Amino acid sequence: MLQISKINKSFGGLKVLNNLSLKIEKGSISGLIGPNGAGKTTLFNVINGSIKPDSGSVQLNNYELIGLQPHELFEIGVLRTFQIPHEFFSLTVLDNLLVVPPNKIGETFFGQWFFEKKIKKIEEINVKKAKDILDILGLSHLEKEYAGNLSGGQKKLLELGRVMMVEPEIILLDEVGAGVNKTLLKKISNIIKKLNKEKKYTFIMIEHDLDFISKLCDTIIVMAEGQFLTQGNIQQIKSNQKVIDIYLGKS
C-alpha cells in the first residue's frame, strides 16, 4: 500500500535518512520507534510532502508521492496530525471540523451564484457529518466551545476528528499520546482501533510509549541512524538484541 524505497536525506552534510526502505500494509496500524535522531520525524516530513528527499521513492498504491505538495497529498488522502495540535483556536470545535473538507464549491463567486441550492445541501451534509464525528469523539457537548479552550487531550481528539472529515487513505500520527492523561489516551486508542476496524484507515504513528503502541499496533518498525533496523510485534522487538542495544537499553 505505502512503499518507501531507498530514501536519502541530508541536512548540511548530516545524513538523516540513509537508504531507508520499508512497507506499510493497507489497513494496518504501524508504530514507528527509535532513539532521538533516528529520522522518524524527517520520514514523516518526506511522506507528507513537507520536505523533498535527495533521492528515493514513496508510492501510495503504486502512485508516486515525491514532488507533491502537502495540500495535494491532503486531497488524495495522506494526512498528518502533529505532536502539538494545530487547531484554529479562535473557531468553535464544530467550525474546526467544517473548515476541513477540500474543494468546496461555495468558496468561489461562480459557485455561490450558480449553485446556491447545491451548496446549501452540501453544507447540511457536512454539518451532520461533523456532529456525528463529535459524538464519536465524545466532544458533542463542546461543539460551541472555542477550540483554544480545550485541554491537550481534547485537542488531540479534535485533530482526529478533522482527519475523519475527509475519509483519508493513510494517517500519520506524531506522538498522539504526548501530554495526554490516561483516560483520554484510552479514548484516543479506542477511536483509532474503531476507525481502523470499521473504516479500514491505515495508521502510522511515531510514539515513545511502548505500552501504548504494543496494545494498539499490528507491527512496530524500529529505525536507527536514518535506517530501517527491524520490525515485528512487541515481543519480537523487545527480544531483539540490536533494538535493546540501540534503543531499549537507553529508554
Q: What can be said about this structure in brief?
A:
With 251 residues, the protein is an alpha/beta fold.
Descriptive report:
There is one protein chain. The strands form two sheets. A six-stranded mixed beta sheet has the order 6-7-8-3-9-10, sandwiched between helices. A four-stranded antiparallel beta sheet has the order 2-1-4-5, with helices on one face. Helix 5 (116-137) packs across helix 6. The two termini are 31 Å apart. It folds into two domains: 2-87 and 151-248, Rossmann fold (3-Layer(aba) Sandwich); 89-149, no CATH class. Helices cover 39% and strands 24% of the residues. The protein is α/β, with parallel strands linked by helices and 251 residues long. It is built from ten helices and ten strands. The chain is globular and about 55 Å long. A hairpin with a 2-residue loop joins strand 4 (55-60) and strand 5 (63-64).
Terminus-to-terminus distance: 31 Å
Find the CATH superfamily of the largest domain: P-loop containing nucleotide triphosphate hydrolases
Structural class: alpha/beta
Radius of gyration: 19 Å
What's the rounded overall pLDDT mean? 89
SSE pattern: EEEHEEHEHHHHEHEHEEHH
CATH class annotation of the largest domain? Alpha Beta
- Which range does the strand content fall in? 15-25%
Q: How many E strands?
A: 10
Cα shape = globular
Summarize the main sheet: 6 strands, mixed
What keyword list fits this structure?
single chain, 251 residues, Rossmann fold, 4-stranded antiparallel sheet, 39% helix, globular
